[in-house]
Amino acid sequence: MCEGQIEELRHTYNVARPLESYLSSISGKTASLYSTAARIGGLVSKFDRGLVNALTAYGEAFGMVFQIVDDVLDLSATDAQLGKPSGHDMVEGVYTLPVLYTLANGGVPASELADVLGKPLNVAERDKALSIVRSNGGIEAAIELAEMYVEAAEEACQDLPNTAATVALRFAPNALLASVR
């Protein structure tokens, strides 16, 4: 988890942050937390190695979905919906997946966004950046990647016994994703 946080801090205010850095950071932070919890649950339950590995894979994929959805909500929800100012990560110089995708799309919107970012933002700059990210495909592209991790979580569940708990595990990542669709 510390390595994931350090990776994030290394790229604070970096408009050229590579996508791989973002994915490595959330894998090291959020996804590792979920995968470790799922793995420990399997070990404590004395499951065989195959089931423990399936739970670990599920936790990793679920953690990726969780963090991408959280990052999408930070940029797509209103201040009132969040109970805090939207775009907080961006204001703090943490450029998450929707921002990175918007920057990668190129063109005038990407240039305008890059011009605003790279430093702490005031409210007007935050609002301009939010408007650009919300209207130029970054959020939709992030949701598409989250869908791939939902599929990975579902695939990991195929190796689990057909129980009520497994049904709940299959449901959880889709429920998360539904909050941003």
TrEMBL record:
PANTHER family hit by this protein: ALL TRANS-POLYPRENYL-DIPHOSPHATE SYNTHASE PDSS1, GERANYLGERANYL PYROPHOSPHATE SYNTHASE
UniProt keyword Transferase, yes or no: yes
UniProt name for this protein: Unannotated protein
Record's signal peptide: none
One example of a Gene Ontology biological process annotation: isoprenoid biosynthetic process
Lineage, top ranks: unclassified sequences, metagenomes, ecological metagenomes
Cofactor or coenzyme needed: Mg(2+)
UniProt KW Lyase keyword: no
Pfam families documented for this protein: polyprenyl_synt
Keywords: Magnesium, Metal-binding, Transferase
